[in-house]
Amino acid sequence: MSKKVENIGNTFTSSENKKKQKQKMRRRVIRRRITLFGGILLAIIIILCIMLVTQKQSNNDDAVERQQKEEKYQKQQDEELALKEQLNNLNDKSYIEKVARDDYYLSNDGEVIFKLPSDKSDAGSKSSKEDK
Length: 132
Description:
This protein is mainly alpha-helical. The protein is built from 3 helices and no strands.
């Protein structure tokens, strides 16, 4: 069928054909530009998503580390309070006398200390409790 229709070789048809070809070229150029800019935009979006995910993971890791450090800090605060209390007790003369009598079996002049068999097991359990 295409061989039955022939183009007329006048200036109007040739100018119309040139206009159509220019439009096709413009469409191709526009399509290429849109594809190029779309690809660049897609690459930027992918890079930003990757950065978002890595930043979120980093924030989670930092939050876990911060929580651990807060727990460690709290333990150190508790330990500091216990040590301050122990220091206050060691500065108290009556506490020192009690410890000396109970743990080291020291006595005042004229006192006699009797060591019973049940005291030996109690002393062992006291020292094991203090070690913990």
